[in-house]
Amino acid sequence: MTLSRSALLLALALTPLAHAKPTPPSRAALLAQAQAQAAAAQAAQQGSQPGAPASPQPGSGPSAPAARPAPISAPWLDARAAENRDPELAEDRKAIEALRQEKALLEAELALAESKRRVELAPLNEERAKLEYERGLRLARAAARSAEIDAEKARLERRLAALSADASLKLAERNNTLRDLETDSRAIKAASELAIAKPVADSALRKARQEVDRIADAPDAYPLVPLIDGTLHISDRRIPFNGVVTNALADLVVSRIAFFNNKDATKPIFVVIDNSPGGSVFAELRILRAFESSKAPIIVVVKQAAASCAAITATLAPRSYCYPHTRILHHQMSTGSRGNMTQLRESLRFGEELYNRTFAPVISKLGYPDAAAFEKDMYKNASTGDWVCFGDEAAKRKWVDFTVERMVETGADELPVERPGEGLTPAFAEGCEMKRDASGRVYYQLPPLTEPGDFWAIDDPEGVFRP
């Protein structure tokens, strides 16, 4: 099979690339091959010249034929001869040689690049060696430090063991000393207790006698009609009603009425008003509803003063008593409403309805035909509308049922103990916080009205109460 010219050229070009580094023939070998080829070429030239003696033919004479030199066989000579015979092969050979030179150039460039890479990597390799050296040095130092720490730790452990043993010994000695001291202390305590037992017993006996003296050993008496020989007897079924009428006061009165009813619904309950200027209308209505719901008789007693809501409480009570000098005051409700005109008109309409509902029973009991007639008398007797009567006059006008000259608290069976801070707020302002304004004037801060539409019905001519 005949190879094409291009395939032959490619094979020749790739032949040196198949070997990493082909070994060239030595100089002596090349010289020997050249001499042999020159001799062969000269012999061939002589044989081809005219007039040259012909080579003896076999069988032409008796002489033996001359020996012909053996042909010199060299691959590169054969290739050279082939090139001489075929110009295209010579061109291919030149192309192959050019490729080989290019290959050599590329190999030289690669070698140069490798040299540059090594030169560039030299500082890095040096730095790496330096870092490895430093790392080894640090590791050696760390190992040495670790050995020192281990040695110090062992020394400290030995020291700690010695100290622990010493501490254990001292602790044992201390415990023995404490046991001895405790034994001595118990002995001393026993002796001291024996020494003070009698004084302590005497002191306890005196305190017990004082406690007995603080309690009145009076028999319990709950007469259905507590007015006996002109004296009103107030039992321990007593509910204090003092200061401004607030939800807190209403809670106290209502809950105690329920308690006394659950305990015994046949004995009277006394609601005692020492001094109250009135207060929340809604809180007052809740107290009056509790009066109506009570099975036990409710008796309201006014000792010093009852105004506004408190006066309504005394007037509408099932039964009420007061001293002749007691001060009772009735007047219209007042309001500190704020808002736009529509809100004020709505508040006024609601206030009028609440006023009518609150005073309707009072007007009926006092015998007035309507609220206007009662209000006329209010302003007739006082330009401010604050109509005040003493107890005896109030009884004539049916503001209270009876007046008495004497009252006794039969339920006061324990001596009151004065506590620090008591007495700073007067009785009429109980339920309020005492403050001073910028000018230094004392006033009493009313608690906020928690019910929407509620009004204050309170006697405050001096302006000492502020919402």
Full CATH superfamily name of the domain at 227-414 and 424-466: 2-enoyl-CoA Hydratase, Chain A, domain 1
What's the total number of strands? 15
Q: What is the string of SSEs from the N terminus onward?
A: HHHHEEEHEEHEHEEHHEHEEEEEE
The CATH class of the domain at 227-414 and 424-466? Alpha Beta
If you had to describe this structure to a student in words, what would you say it looks like?
The protein has 467 residues and is of the alpha/beta class. Among the domains are: 88 residues; 231 residues, 2-enoyl-CoA Hydratase, Chain A, domain 1, CATH 3.90.226.10. It contains ten helices and 15 strands. α5 packs parallel to α6. The chain is elongated and about 190 Å long. It starts with a helix and ends with a strand.
Summarize the structure.
With 467 residues, this protein is of the alpha/beta class.
SSE layout and pairings?
Blueprint: H1 5-14, H2 27-48, H3 75-85, H4 87-214, E1 227-228, E2 231-234, E3 238-240, H5 247-263, E4 269-276, E5 278-280, H6 281-293, E6 298-307, H7 309-316, E7 319-322, E8 327-330, H8 341-366, H9 371-381, E9 387-390, H10 391-396, E10 402-403, E11 406-409, E12 433-436, E13 442-445, E14 456-458, E15 465-466
Parallel strand pairs: 2-11, 3-4, 4-6, 6-7, 6-8, 7-10, 13-15
Antiparallel strand pairs: 1-2, 5-14, 8-9, 12-13
Helix pairs in contact: 1-4, 3-4, 5-6, 6-7
What descriptors fit this protein?
three-stranded mixed β-sheet, elongated, seven-stranded mixed β-sheet, alpha/beta, 2-enoyl-CoA Hydratase, Chain A, domain 1, 467 residues
